[in-house]
Structure formats: C-alpha cells, structure tokens
Design brief:
Helices cover about 35% and strands about 20% of the residues. The protein has about 120 residues and is of the alpha/beta class.
Amino acid sequence: MTTVLIIEDEMNIRLFVSANLDARGYTVLEAETGEQGLQLLRQASPNAVILDMLLPDMTGWDVLDEMMKDEKIKDIPVILMTASISVDESANYPNLVQRVTKPASVNVLLDALRSVTQQP
C-alpha cells in the first residue's frame, strides 16, 4: 500500500484530499502543522507528502529544510500544494517533485501522486 502524508492546516482541504485518496486505495496520514508533519514523517516514513506552504507554525520551506537534515526522510517525494509562491526555491530541494495550485482537483493530485509512487 502507498502511504501519503498530508500536511495541511485547512481542515476542509485536508479532509477532502484525505477522503479522495483513501477512496482510491491510498493509506493517508494527516497533520495540521509542520511539526506534527515532521513527527509523522519520522515515525511512518510515508511514500509521498502533500505539503501546504503556509502552516500555522512554520512554512513549507521550513518543513523541507528539516527534511533535508534527516537522512531517513530527505528523499521522500514532496508535492507542494499552495495558492501562491512568491519565491522559487525549488532547486534547493531535490525531493520537491511537483507543484499543485490550490484549489486542486482530485485528478491533478492523483496525477501528481502517480508520478512519484507506484500506485495506479
């Protein structure tokens, strides 16, 4: 089974993504904050992460920075899901493989996940 961690503070978005992925056979983990997300990353080592850029305790860039410091989680593929990005820092993060603009359709998210996992 493919496990996906959603790090998103907006409950409606998180639940929408989670329900749609779950219905398609993904195992879904959820975090509301960057710190919760990092804890789950270290505990569960998911196959992919869907990461919001604006979290209540840190930015998505901060989460990516912390991931890069940890050998166990630094290579987990990350799909960035955000309404806007003012600065393009993606070259600094080789595990940042996709960008999805909010509000994202289910098909866009599924295509992004398929590009980084073996799930059909």
